[in-house]
Amino acid sequence: MAAIATEWVEGVANSHDYGDALTKSILFFEGQRSGKLPPTQRMNWRKDSALRDGFQIGVDLVGGYYDAGDNVKFNFPMAFSITMLAWSVLEFGQTMGSDLQHAMEAIQWGTDYFLKATSIPGFVFAQIGDPYGDHNCWERPEDMDTPRTPYAISKQFPGSEVSAEIAAALAASSLVFRPTNRAYSARLLKRARMVFEFADKYRGSYNDSLGPWVCPFYCDYSGYEDELVWGAVWLFRATKAPYYWNYIQANVQNLEKSGSVLEFGWDSKHAGINVLVPKLMNTQTSNPNPFVTNADNFVCSILPESPTVSVSYSPGGLLFKTGGSNMQHATTLSFLLLAYSRFLRKANRVIHCGNVVATPARLVQVAKSQVDYILGSNPLKMSYMVGYGNKFPQRIHHRGASLPSISQHPQQIDCSEGRTYFASSNPDPNLLTGAVVGGPDIKDSYADSRADFEHSEPTTYINAPLVGLLAYFKSH
């Protein structure tokens, strides 16, 4: 399998413009913005939307991002996307060039909203918009007339995973802004500590309190223990306070109970914790610890030649895990490989997967093969990023992209009227530049159909880790 993947990569790899792809991967976030758009908005077919979010309960909850092709603000995956954008900038920002400013604006669009969503002590807003009402309509965000119900967690109805992930996003982002805007950075960090304390003190899953609205969309399947440790890791990185280090040590055994050390994504933070902690500890090989062991095992679960590989690869070389929207696995897991390769290089070590020796360079190579596949080094020779290359998805599962923009069609398009556009085989009238879709099936085929949402829907959490990957390959 690995050999097949390499053939595709060698055939087309040299022709990829990682800088262009990086610019577009960040621009995508402007197409997902909710709220009052700024004068600097570059994706001009999008207009203001959801300007009264929270007003029915007297709280300003305007802003943030739509997670995918719908018009709901799901704060759990949104927070993970912001954490990953921040990590992308912290790890690879020095090679982003003029895109760094846009990446920081994308982060701040999220953190400004999370400051609002956590502004009332004892409450954290977890979601805005009734998902069933929204999913039954095919409407532009600018036209929305479905209920914009705000859903909050509280002391009585806890939701540790969403609160702790918001804390992680705020803490990671505070590090991004520290060199350029100390006051804003301090504000984010202060709020991160407060929200983390709330998440830890009132423990429970938001499945139990908000299950009818957050499930099945972003149900938490791996428990909230991983988010608590993940939040503590980012707070430790941002503060160096022994309290958070002790917290990590005291709670790390809960991770074994709550899910696989091989998982990473909006739902499960396990592998991310194990990759991030050694980088903070500057661990040397003479002092083995569970984080390094787990991170090594994670790498061995990804490499195609490893005897303990636990993911699948398509004939063309794309990494696959079970569950929809597969590209999220290709981007998040590749990001971890790249981040961990830098730690290995610094610690001057390799990983032994049985009799297979994995060098830092091999981790980079596997990550690059995934990025190249997304950009067009694949059997269909098509890019899975909208607007990149000559051949890319034309009918994505995305309301805004598939309906004519307000400037072309100022009249309201109501809930049922939008269905005609959904069912149309015409290409999208608006280019959601930089959007990476869920991707092909495990046989490398892609239908390019709006209705096939598992494969044709873009998400913020596919793009966020890709930003860091593209920044690295742009300069290497």
Automatic annotation (TrEMBL):
Enumerate the active-site residues.
397, 448, 457
Tree of life domain: Eukaryota
Which PROSITE patterns does the record match to this protein? Answer: GH9_2, GH9_3
Q: What is its EC number?
A: 3.2.1.4
Which is a GO BP term held by this UniProt record?
Answer: cellulose catabolic process
Keyword ATP-binding in the entry? The reply is no
Q: Which residues form the Glycoside hydrolase family domain?
A: 18-470
Molecular function via GO: cellulase activity
- So what family is this one in? Belongs to the glycosyl hydrolase 9 (cellulase E) family.
Q: Write the protein's name.
A: Endoglucanase
Q: Which organism is it from?
A: Corchorus capsularis (Jute)
